[in-house]
Amino acid sequence: MSNSVVPLASTILSELKEQLSQAGFHRVPREPMFARDQAGRKEIFWLIYTRDPQSAEVSATVAVAFESIEVLMREASGLYHNPGNYTMSLAKDVWRIDPGMQTIIRTADDLPAVIGTLMRAWQEFGLPFYERFKTVRDVAEYMTPSTVGFGNTPINCSVGAIAKRQCGSADYAEFVEFCRGRLKGISDGFYLRRFDALIERLS
After folding, report:
1. How far apart are alpha carbons 44 and 62 in whole angstroms?
2. Does the residue 1 lie in any domain?
3. 120 lies in a domain?
4. Range of 116's domain?
5. Under 8 Å between Cβ of 83 and 31
6. Which of 77, 111, 132 is where one domain is finished?
7. Digits of tens for pLDDT over the chain (203 positions)?
8. Which CATH number is 43's domain given?
9. Rounded to the nearest 10 degrees, what angle do helices 172-184 and 190-202 cross at?
10. Domain total in the chain
11. pTM beyond 0.85, yes or no
C-alpha cells in the first residue's frame, strides 16, 4: 500500500473497530480483520486491499471458523491453511459479488463513504453468512461434490470430510471417495496423500 494512504487505512480500521465493537467484534492483532467469538466458533470480517502508487481499493470478505475443525486442519491435514484460520468464507470478495461494494481511497475525503460501504458489506453479506453457517452440521450439509470446487478444492475436501465425520453424515464415505477422485489429478497426488492421512486420522 502506498505511503500516502497507509494512515488512511489505519483510520478505517480504527473507525470499523469502534462500530463493530458494538456488535461484539474485536480487532485481530496485526491483521486487517475483526472477529466475534462464539462457543467453539468465530465470525470473521476481513478487509482486503489492492493498491497503486496513489490509492487503494478496499473490499472485504466474511468467514466463520469452527475450532473443532480447525484443530484437525492444523494437526492432521498437512495442508497450509488460510491465514486467520477460517473454515468457510465467501467464494469471492464482496465487491466481485456486488460491484457497488468496491471502494477506492485516495484522500481523507473518501473515508466516510469507504467506511459506510464496508459497514454495509458487513450487514448485507456478513450477517446472513454468519447465520447460514452457525453449526458444523451447516458446513457438512453445504460441502457436496458440487460445491467443493468453489475456492480451494484440497482444503474444501478436508473441511467437508471433517465436518461430515463429526456430524455422522450419511454421505461421508461417498464424499470421501469423490474427493479422492478429484485430488488424485491435482499436483501428482500431493494433496491426495495428505487427504488420505487425514481420513485415517478420522477413522
Report:
1. 6
2. no
3. yes
4. 6-132
5. yes
6. 132
7. 555 677 888 899 999 999 999 999 999 988 899 999 998 999 999 998 876 667 788 888 899 999 999 888 887 766 655 545 688 888 666 767 777 788 888 899 999 999 999 999 999 999 999 999 999 999 999 999 998 887 788 889 999 999 999 999 999 999 999 999 999 988 888 889 989 999 999 98
8. 3.90.1150
9. 160
10. 2
11. yes
